[in-house]
Amino acid sequence: xxxxRPRRDFGAGPWVASAWVIGVALAxxxxxxxxPAPPGPVTDTFIPLYSSGITVRDDGExxxxxxxxxAQPSPSAAGREWLxxxxxxxxxxxxxxxxxxxxxxxxxxxLPVRYGKADVGPQRYALIAAWxxxxxxxxxxxxxxxxVALARSxxxxxxxxxxxxxxxxxxxxxxxxxxxxxxxxxxxxDDRAAQTDGIGWVLWAAxxxxxxxxxxxxxxxxxxxxxxISRASAAALRLTDDGRRLPPISPDxxxxxxYRLTLGTAGPLLIALQSAAHLGSVGAATAAVRYRxxxxxxFGSQGYPRQxxxxxxxxxxxxxxxxxxVRRPFVDEDLPGAAAAWQASxxxxxxxxxxxxPGGSWRNDGISWTPTTSIYALVAACSGDTAQARxxxxxxxAHRTEAGxxxxxxxxxxxxASVAPLAWTSANVLIALSCLPGPDEDIGG
Length: 445
Prior knowledge:
By secondary structure, the chain is mainly alpha-helical. Helix content is 44%, strand content 5%. The chain contains 14 helices and seven strands. It has helices spanning 12-34, 77-84, 96-109, 140-152, 156-169, 197-212, 215-224, 226-239, 263-278, 284-298, 338-349, 370-382, 386-398, 423-435, and strands at residues 53-56, 62-65, 110-113, 124-127, 368-369, 409-410, 416-417. Strand 6 (409-410) and strand 7 form a beta hairpin. The protein is globular, with a radius of gyration of 24 Å.
């Protein structure tokens, strides 16, 4: 009888098996990190409302209002004077009161800062996201939107001051950090990675603010923002190789580490190049045309998903808020297929409370996010879809706090949650209202 003995040679077999195991493990890790997880079943998450609003006393000091504030705070004498210096978007319409409160909230979150550079040009303003500790920072994105909202409501010097602050904190290579400490100029609260999308938002804001400036002041403001514009334009050209390639992977407005390029990063680079072209940056117009075609071929062919998909294997990822970034008023013209993708995306993002989550692959916790919902209102309003804009604005108005401020989140039962007011949402609402027809023009949308 033949006795089978164990082999003593260590040929290719074990190594092949080991390589196979390692390959499977590596693929599992890659899929875990790179494939968006399905939302899963709805789990109603509770987040408290930290405050119902903010008030500014006559001496200029800010105070956070308790979550159960029973009435809207009356503006101080300084607040009433400030309102009178500009205009109120949607004045004379049912949205006027929400507009007034959003304006006052942005003014309250625009903190005057003084340091050496503030002696040149306008008073600088550090626009913080919200009054609570973890939001008491300047995000270039939020500040840029607030600057546009202020410029459109006639508060041009304050808008210029916000952009001048961003110019002061901008890195020498034209990029921006994720967020900044408001008073300690250029300092950051942590070691988060820089976010490439800030280049696009700042250039877009500069373009919009200058468009609102009267001709007599445009040259002065443009000259004051020259360093901001030139450095950011050069960064956009460098990161895209003059429009020939997509930018490197970067965190976007989700503010998490990314392993694949997202539309939330790629889209704002088109915004940057087109804005740079309008602002006179040499070579930006040609680069913008190249880059637009590349963006359409890469993301547009898949319906503008959140992440650059792996066609033929994993397919495209779920949609998210970034589909708004390839539509007007952020880009010169809607990209091909963007309007249809924008409309379709909402079904994957709607939440039980009636608003939208940041993306279709966002955790299914039942929470609506007002920044996303208000961005959809903004794009609808500024692209002429008045009916849809009014629908989203009505939802936002109905879910304000008792003090009248717009919160960051809304729970599944419709309760406002997290911080209030949130600067980005307030700015989005004001820009949306500025795009809608006035009371004498509106014949039903």
